[in-house]
Amino acid sequence: MSETTTTNGRIAEVMPQLNKVNSEGHVRYGKMLIDGEWVDAADGRTFNAIYPGTGKAIAKVAFAGNEDVDRAVTAARAAFEVGDYAKMNGADRGKLLWRIADLMEGHIDELAELETLNNGKPLLESRWVDLPQSINCFRYYAGWAGKVSGQTIEPDMNVNAFAYTLREPIGVCGQIIPWNFPIQMATWKIAPAIACGNTVVIKPAEQAPLSILRLGELMLEAGMPKGVVNIVTGDGPTTGAIIVEHPDVDKVAFTGSVEVGKLIMQNAAKSLKKVTLELGGKSPNVVFADANLEFAAKVALSGIFFNQGQMCAAGSRIMIEEAARDEFMEVLSARAAKMVVGDPLNPKTRMGSLVSQEQMNRVFRYIEKGKDEGANLLVGGERVGEDGYFVTPTVFDGVKNTMTIAQEEIFGPVASVIAFNDVDEAAAIANDSRYGLASGVWTNDLKKAHLFAKKIKAGTVWVNTYNMVDNALPFGGYKESGFGRELGQASLDAYTQLKTVWVDLN
Ligand code: ADP
């Protein structure tokens, strides 16, 4: 890219810092966190962490196998059953979560830079969206810790008994997360797990583990007792699969693709682990003719192009009412054509690099498929530069909902625009998908907005906005987008189990 020199300049500035912390023994890249210690893989195996902006390796990461995962699970089990953490009450776990948030805040620039370095997303997003949201997530669940309790319940039978429920932690939680929002996805899983008193073995995605390793170090600094959060790095079919099949893991929380989600459910069934799955999406963003078209177009673009479109909730099907199609498309395509990709580490860049060569190749395969199936490539569809994985924002018009680019999750900067004629047709098209993660509806007609919200089969409906995520509000999918909810009070259900206690009063 034209700004490659800037990128290299920034890496040159950041890398000595990484190496320095390495040699001083702080963040030990190349090692993972097991039982409060930074350790190598038992067999010494490592893999490279890449900076997607150049495609070059920036650090070595340990590759966990059977022995390592087993050590992590054993440590998590011990921490859950005995020791300081097992004795800690909810209020004290809350203080611990709050201290982690404070430390993250104190290191926000460094964490954001690391996130961008390993993921390729613009610093603007990691510094001003991902990190603040993650820090607040720890604070949100700090507030819940100590307030998670059961109920006293009057029995239905005519018995002389006193009955109540205890809401208890599940135990050792295996958490497997994707590369698109590494620190956020880790936070959404670690914070509620700890609030409820569980222990954790977390596996970052192999593409982007660095920020989570640094988070692990901050957690230790915050006073997290050993074994409570273990971070094992490695790939999915090896390290991830070992976690899922480990007999002493009580629950698996997974965010990632539908295909891997299905595999995890099958494998977890062998020991009947509790499972929550937050999977993909092909979310419809439906614009009615009476909406503020200019604003709808602007937000629809960020709804698909934020994080280069690598979002499970991406509004990848932009649906426009036929009556307003020409006017809307004019604004949408003009705005899309003006969006530029740039150096992820430049604080002004709005669109950065895709995470990997593999992901970029996948996106281009879909772009070719869109053209082959007769969609009209209106904007973009090109690679920028030869270093890194930069793809221009891409808009297809004239898309039919049966086309591959309307049915399959691309996970890249590709919007498919589909026209419709009325509310019923809009809902029918929107729901004609195996996914049901999120949706958007744009209208100034209150009745239409609520009617649509009722008709749509999706876990989230945004009315006259898109991509709003809040720590207090549950997030998760209908249909093949998964089950279980993250964030909000809902996540407490996912990390606890109910025990009923009967006391005979005769
Ligand atoms: P993506 O296609 O976005 O990379 P994946 O679903 O492949 O998403 O990966 C999400 C997470 O799941 C990553 O941490 C990955 O290592 C892990 N993973 C992939 N395959 C498996 C598997 N068979 N078992 C457990 N975890 C896996």
In short:
The protein folds into two domains: 28-279 and 484-498, Aldehyde Dehydrogenase, Chain A, domain 1; 284-470, Aldehyde Dehydrogenase, Chain A, domain 2 (3-Layer(aba) Sandwich), CATH 3.40.309.10. Helix content is 42%, strand content 21%.
Topology:
Layout lengths: L3 H20 L8 E3 L2 E3 L6 E6 L4 E7 L3 H16 L2 H4 L2 H17 L1 H12 L3 H22 L7 E2 L7 E9 L2 E5 L5 H14 L3 E5 L6 H12 L7 E3 L4 H10 L5 E5 L2 H12 L4 E5 L5 E4 L5 H13 L11 E5 L3 H14 L18 H16 L3 E4 L3 E2 L5 E2 L2 E4 L6 H4 L6 E7 L2 H9 L3 E2 L1 E5 L3 H10 L4 E4 L14 E2 L2 E2 L6 H5 L1 E9 L2
Parallel strand pairs: 7-8, 7-10, 8-9, 10-11, 12-13, 12-20, 13-18, 17-18, 20-21
Antiparallel strand pairs: 1-2, 3-4, 5-6, 6-24, 11-23, 14-17, 15-16, 19-22
Structural write-up:
With 506 residues, the protein is α/β, with parallel strands linked by helices. The chain has 2 domains: 28-279 and 484-498, Aldehyde Dehydrogenase, Chain A, domain 1 (3-Layer(aba) Sandwich); 284-470, Aldehyde Dehydrogenase, Chain A, domain 2, CATH 3.40.309.10. The relative contact order is 0.14. A 7-stranded mixed sheet has the order 14-17-18-13-12-20-21, with helices on both faces. It is globular, with a radius of gyration of 23 Å. Bound molecules: adenosine-5'-diphosphate. Residues 176-178, 203, 205-206, 235-237, 240-241, 244, 256-257, 260, 263-264 line the site of adenosine-5'-diphosphate.
Q: In angstroms, what separates the terminal alpha carbons?
A: 80 Å
**Strand order of the biggest β-sheet:** 14-17-18-13-12-20-21
Bound molecules: adenosine-5'-diphosphate
Pairing-aware structural class of the strands and helices? alpha/beta
The overall average pLDDT, rounded, is 94
Tell me the number of helical segments per DSSP (H or I, 4 or more residues long): 17
CATH superfamily of the largest domain: Aldehyde Dehydrogenase, Chain A, domain 1
> Uncertain spans, ≥5 residues at pLDDT below 50?
1-13, 19-28
**Tally of extended strands?**
24
Number of domains: 2
The proportion of strand residues reads: 15-25%
Which geometry do the CA atoms define? Answer: globular
CATH-assigned fold name of the largest domain: Aldehyde Dehydrogenase, Chain A, domain 1
**What share of the residues lie within helices?**
40-55%
The assigned CATH architecture of the largest domain is: 3-Layer(aba) Sandwich
- What is the CATH class designation of the largest domain? Alpha Beta
Q: Major beta sheet, specifics?
A: 7 strands, mixed
Using only C-alpha atoms, the radius of gyration works out to 23 Å
